Amino acid sequence: MASPVARKIAEASGQGSWIRRMFEEGVRLKSIYGADQVCDLSIGNPNVEPPAEFHSALKEVLLDRTPGLHGYMPNAGYPHVREAVAAHLSREQGVEVAGSNVVMTVGAAGGLNIALKTILDPGDEVVFTQPYFVEYGHYVDNFQGVAKPVPASADFDLDLAAIDEAIGERTRAVLINSPNNPTGRVYPRETLVTLGDLLRAKSRLFGRTVYLLSDEPYRRIVYDGMVVPPVFPVYENSLIVSSYSKELSLAGERIGYLAAHPGLAGVETLMQGLAFATRVLGFVNAPALMQRAVGRLQGVVVDMQTYERNRAVLLAGLVPAGYQIPAAEGGFYLFPRSPLSDDVAFVSELAEHRVLGVPGIGFGTPGYFRLSYCVAPEVVDRALPVLCALGKKYFA
After folding, report:
1. What secondary structure letter does DSSP report for 393?
2. Where are the alpha helices (DSSP H) in 228-376?
3. What pLDDT, in 10s, does the model give residues 137-172?
4. 179 preceded by cis ω (within 30°)?
5. pTM of the model
6. So what's the pLDDT on residue 23?
7. How many other C-beta atoms can be found within 10 angstroms of the C-beta atom of residue 129?
8. N or C: which end of the chain has fewer CB within 10 A?
9. For residues 220 and 248, what is the distance between their CA atoms, to the nearest angstrom?
C-alpha cells in the first residue's frame, strides 16, 4: 500500500533529528530507571524559569479589559510592540530602526521561514557554516532553495575564504548564527566587517542582493563580559531574526521577531513580502498575548547564574580529563571533540551510562558531540564523573 505521506516527508522524518532521537532515548531510559537516574544533556530546553518581570507583565496584560484586544491585528504584529522592539534594536545595533522594519514572528523558526519564503526563488542558494542548527537545511528546502553548508575555521569562526568560494550567481543569502548553536562561538566584529565587505562585493558582481541573515536567539546569553557584535553597522542588506525562547525562557510560547536594516535595498517592498509570507504560511501573526507581554520586557534577561555555574563546572572537569572544547562564549552548549572518531558510537556509549548528548554529525560536523547545560545543577554534577571517566579511558 502506498505511504500516506509524501516521499520527501517520509525520507526526512525517517532520518530524523539527532537531538530528537536522543531526547526520545532519554524518555525511554527515564521510564526504566527513573528521571533522577538519567542525565539528559541532549536538548536546549531552558530549565531556568522566566524572570519575575515576565509574570508581572503577563498579569497586567491578562487584566487589561480594553475592547478588541483578542481580535485580528496587522499580520506583522501590534504596531506598539514593533515600535518597542525597534527602539531596543536601535540601541543595541547603533542604527536607527523603525517599527515598520520589524515583524513579530512565531519564534525564530517562524522568522527564518518567512524570510526565506520572501527572498528565495526556486533554485536560489543559502550558504551557512558547519556546524549549524539542525533545521536550517529543511527551512531552505521548504521554499525550493538549495542549502550550501561550508566548513568553519579551525577555531569555529566563519571561514571567509570558504564562504567566498561558495557564493555564486544563485546565492541569495548567507545565514549566520552567533552565538552559535552548537559551539557557543561568538563571531568577532572584524570577521563580520570582512563578511559585510564580501557580500557587498558579491552583490555588485552578480547584480542582485545577497542578504545577510543573522539568527540571534542566544544574543543575550553570553559569559565573561562578552558582547555580541551587531550586524547592522557592518552590512546594510541584513536581516536579524531572534526569539524570546532563551533570553526570557519562553521556548514554548513561540514568540520572536524579524528586523530589517532600514538601509536595505527595497526595504518597504521586502517588509510587505514578509507580512504576506506570515499570512500565507499560516502563522497569520505571532501570538497576541505574548506580543503584548514581551513588548514590555525589552532588555530583560533571565537569571544567568545556573548557566554560568554549569558551564564553569563542566569546563573545570572536562578539560583536565582530556577533552578539547572550542571557546563557549555564549548560548548554553559545549561542543567537545569526541574521544572516538565515530561520534555516534561515543554518544551511544555515554547513553549506556545514562548520560545523553548529541553527536556532531547531527550538526554537519562529525567527530564532535554537543552537551546542553541548561539543566538543573544536580544533572551536571551526576553527568560529569561519567564524562570524565570516559575521557580518561580514551585520552590516557
Report:
1. H
2. 267-280, 288-294, 305-318, 343-352
3. 999 999 999 999 999 999 999 999 999 999 999 999
4. yes
5. 0.95
6. 76
7. 29
8. N
9. 10
